[in-house]
Design a protein that fits this description.
The chain is globular, with a radius of gyration of 24 Å. The chain is α+β, with helices and mostly antiparallel strands.
Length: 432
């Protein structure tokens, strides 16, 4: 059964209608008339797919999966793509600029098999990191892609597996690219732009043609849009749910580095008792004081008033805390809180909530997902900002509904995101 068939008939029909409408507006985007191949923007496709199929938008900048669809307890990672022509073709699937120096050393050595093996290994590492980040299995994820021919959109679905690095073959190196296969998919790495390409072919046994439909292009979409817009605003009501977002650094905002015994290296701090080292997943995310000054209402209504109340609290029991539930992108929710002087530590922990194993949530719950599962730290090696940047991140994005302080969402953010956020600059996006 295809993933497409898991969505309802009504959802599929609505998705197709949105694609038809966008394709009908193709003359908005072209300078030369007469081209009858309809246009489709990939970001529009991602947005509409997530909206119609009630899927989680999972793309945080050059990550392998664009959305996640959930069917009961099954989570499916989906890569979304579109291009012109339904003929078999290579399409870009991953950017490896951060690995360019390592790859160039292997290229200079001239061993095409070693080069193909390492590129395949890097691609698999990125995929597996996304499996942990999003709570995906290895063998159920797919590419959902739209090919565009004269007046027609074709909806396709194919498998999205790890590369079988034990079965690499058909190596061919040219001045500008390396080609190879694993017996399931054919791949290409282009040296000039550090891109991995995959060959898509609807005739292959792991690919399904799901649907074909006509797209009628409007000759004058400008007049159509003007009329539609002014008819709409006369009756439209604002129904959009307002979202508040913020970014935090995974490093010290003062030193611009990950401190050796705090933050993501809190596990390297002095033992709490005896000589037993702290757990490797014991971490917290540092919150700069400048963040609270600039955004005092993100975690609570006026954090400075809360601090005054907390300092003057003389009641029984523990002092008041800022506690909330944190939604991880893998579908799990963990209790978290702000701790430390000036509310400068963001960490997991609970007084009484327990996980699926009956164990009370502690400081390790957030670290397990962030540091161990996704970023892949598996030994007592100090985390550095350079190490984070090689992983494609140095910040996290947080967001919540405007009036809801009880539930916050989290995901990784691109390198430089926190610095840009504090300067009110656009969040950088790594080229895909």
């Amino acid at each position: 059964m295809s993933i497409w068939e898991k969505y309802s008939k009504e959802e599929r029909e609505d998705y197709i209608k949105f694609l038809q409408v966008y394709g009908a507006l193709s003359n908005l985007f072209r300078q030369k008339q007469g081209d009858l191949i309809p246009y489709l923007d990939s970001k529009f496709q991602e947005t509409v797919f997530a909206k119609i199929f009630k899927s989680q938008n999972a793309d945080i900048g050059n990550t392998p999966h664009d959305v996640v669809s959930v069917f009961d307890d099954e989570r499916i990672g989906i890569g979304l793509k579109t291009w012109m022509s339904s003929k078999p073709s290579f399409q870009k699937v991953m950017q490896l600029k951060r690995n360019q120096n390592e790859i160039n050393i292997l290229l200079e050595a001239g061993d095409k098999e070693a080069l193909a093996y390492r590129i395949s290994e890097i691609k698999n590492e990125k995929l597996e990191s996304d499996y942990f980040r999003l709570g995906l299995s290895k063998d159920k994820n797919i590419y959902h892609y739209i090919t565009r021919d004269k007046g027609i959109f074709t909806v396709n679905e194919c498998t999205y597996p790890l590369i079988d690095i034990n079965n690499l073959k058909d190596f061919n190196i040219a001045p500008n690219a390396l080609l190879w296969s694993d017996g399931i998919k054919n791949y290409k790495y282009t040296f000039g732009d550090s891109q991995i390409w995959q060959k898509f072919d609807s005739s292959k046994s792991d690919t399904l043609i799901l649907h074909k439909f006509d797209v009628k292009i409007i000759e004058d979409p400008f007049s159509f849009l003007l009329k539609a817009y002014f008819n709409l605003i006369e009756t439209a009501e604002e129904t959009k749910e307002e979202i508040v977002e913020a970014y935090l650094p995974l490093y010290s905002y003062d030193s611009k580095e990950v401190e050796q015994k705090s933050g993501l290296n809190a596990w390297n701090g002095a033992p709490k008792s005896g000589t037993t080292p702290r757990p490797l997943n014991e971490v917290y995310i540092p919150i700069p004081r400048d963040f609270h000054k600039k955004h005092p209402d993100f975690f609570t209504k006026n954090i400075f008033e809360f601090e005054k109340f907390r300092e003057s609290y003389s009641g029984k029991g523990n002092k008041p805390e800022i506690r909330f539930h944190l939604n991880l992108p893998n579908g799990k929710t963990i209790p978290c809180l702000l701790t430390g002087d000036s509310m400068k530590h963001f960490q997991s922990g609970s007084h009484n909530e327990v996980d699926e194993n009956g164990k009370k949530y502690g400081q390790s719950a957030l670290g397990q997902w962030l540091l161990i599962d996704v970023l892949g730290l598996n030994e007592r090696k100090l985390v550095t900002r350079e190490w984070l940047q090689k992983k494609g991140t140095d910040s996290v994005r947080l967001w919540r509904k405007k009036e809801d302080y009880n539930t916050i969402n989290i995901d990784f953010a691109p390198v430089g995101a926190f610095e840009a956020f504090m300067k009110d600059e656009p969040i950088p996006q790594e080229e895909e």
